[in-house]
Amino acid sequence: MRSTPWAPTSRNSCRASRASEEGPSQAGLRPGTRGAQHCGLCRGRSVAVKSRCRHVHPMIVPLSSPTHAQVRNALGAIYREFAAPTPAKIEGCPCCISTRGVDVLLTTPLRHLSGEALWRYVSGAFLTIGGERDFRYLLPRIFDLAVNEPENFIDPEIVLGKLKLANWKSWSAGERRVVEDFMDSWFEHALARDLAQAEVFSVGSEAESVLCGAARSGLPLRRWLDRLQEPDASRVLADLKERFPGKLSAFWHDAPAGLEELSGILARAGASGDT
Known about the structure:
The protein has 11 helices and 2 strands, in the order αββαααααααααα. It is mainly alpha-helical. A two-stranded antiparallel ribbon has the order 1-2. A hairpin with a 7-residue loop joins strand 1 and strand 2 (46-47). The radius of gyration is 18 Å and the shape is globular. The termini are far apart. The model is unreliable at 1-5, 9-13 and 22-52 (pLDDT under 50).
């Protein structure tokens, strides 16, 4: 593949591109929740630490659980499908790339890359740094950290939203299939974490984040919304209904079609609960 000069995918300046991904409305903030404090991993932004921040209250699902096995198998398929040589370089905006730690990404074995190293890349991917070739190379580790170390990594809404910028629907059928299989396993694992958190604290919002990320990637949400309507997921569905619309993830504004799908099942859930 021939290399071309790097340019932001946005028609705005690189500064505007940075703001579009890293501004307050894109921080994974759950507006309107109470008990807002500052979380260091949320980069000083005000988040509802006591009720929503997954960095402060990560819930661990046992390694022997079925969802861990599903995630492990799905990740294995992702690593195999996207196996590729390390890129020779990663292009980027000249005034931004020095802050993104690109050298570490190119000299550290893929499976050893840390969440901190990849955080800086993912947040600016396709806006101020990177292209499809390096994104595809890094994708297995990005998914790995996102699902296994969510308390130390960037929000699922951003991770999955990058797929649309990568034009992933033009990828091969095999590549698209393993990505969708991974999303299925990630959603199920996030749902298990949310329910585990409900046993000791309050219902988590990780499944919503994955759902919103899938919507941002351009996928319809039908199969995951159907899953939310099954009896064992009722607490998560009830929590979404309680928080709708003002206390959901701020990223839904980038996925109006997905939000409309979600609104439909929440309306039906509300109607059935009133009868």
